[in-house]
Design a protein that fits this description.
The protein has 267 residues and is mainly α. The chain contains 9 helices and no strands. Helix 2 packs antiparallel against helix 5, helix 4 crosses helix 8 and helix 5 packs antiparallel against helix 9. The chain is globular and about 55 Å long. The two termini are 15 Å apart.
Length: 267
């Protein structure tokens, strides 16, 4: 972040952090004004790095604090975190299945209709998986505000940075294909950046939900962690390893190490 957000209210912290992630999405979408395509190796490295950051953050900033909080509240330290993790992952998987079903149903359409449907599905898919990312940032800041062990403003901010890194190629991954489908550059950019608007909204909702009832905080933290891991496993890693497997793998490892060191040292 270009300035400290330590002194802000948690809602504003989450909003500033996710406005950053949205801005990176918009920057990626803006590539449509300059290029017909962006270097695939660079995008795959960024996707891998972002995936590594998100995997590490899912444990140190979300799941581990959920387990510790269960201990404080006198709950089973495995049941609620496991249930929340499963629910978050199932939510993302079910949403992906729903999109796949709509995609399959469009297979018999005429060429122009198929092109339009494919474009809609592309924007919808990216938008949908941005929701749990925004939620995770909001819940992390909410946990920091409640003083939950393991949750901190630094860790939540680093989580937002990691999400922002993988949002850049996502923005480009929406706008560039839309341009190839015949959309004008301005329309392709509009839809590309719009896919990231849901992150600040989800983040603010996540903060309110996290701060409203402390007793459900472990579930919310674990839910966000499960959703993040599902997004990484279903979207980011498969996309990044398709062409540059080794480069993407190094990106994941580096992202994980950086997040682990910073979260443990500064969180």
């Amino acid at each position: 972040m270009p300035f400290s957000i330590q002194g802000l209210h948690p809602v504003w912290q989450a909003l500033v952090a996710t406005l950053f992630t949205y801005g990176v999405t918009a920057a990626g979408a803006a590539m449509v004004f300059f290029f017909k395509k962006v270097n695939r190796k660079v995008l795959d490295l960024m996707l891998g790095f972002g995936a590594g950051v998100m995997i590490a953050a899912s444990f140190w900033s979300l799941l581990s604090p959920a387990i510790d909080l269960c201990g404080e509240l006198g709950y089973s330290q495995w049941f609620l975190p496991a249930l929340g993790f499963l629910a978050g992952g199932a939510f993302v998987v079910a949403a992906g299945k729903l999109l796949d079903r709509f995609s399959f149903q469009s297979a018999g359409d005429h060429t122009q209709a198929k092109s339009l449907r494919r474009s809609i599905l592309l924007v919808t898919a990216v938008t949908l998986h941005n929701i749990p990312e925004g939620l995770a940032v909001g819940v992390a800041f909410g946990g920091a505000a409640l003083g939950i062990p393991g949750c901190g403003v630094v860790g939540a901010s680093l989580l937002a940075v990691g999400i922002g890194l993988q949002n850049f190629p996502e923005g480009a991954a929406v706008s560039l294909p839309l341009r190839r489908e015949g959309f004008s550059r301005s329309k392709a950019f509009f839809y590309g950046q719009a896919s990231g608007v849901v992150e600040p909204i989800a983040a603010v909702l996540g903060v309110f939900a996290a701060m409203a009832v402390r007793s459900i905080q472990p579930f919310l933290l674990a839910f966000s962690a499960g959703a993040m891991i599902a997004v990484v496993a279903a979207e980011l890693i498969p996309e990044s390893v398709e062409k540059n497997k080794n480069l993407a793998a190094m990106g994941v490892i580096l992202g994980f190490i950086v997040m682990m060191i910073l979260d443990v040292a500064l969180g």
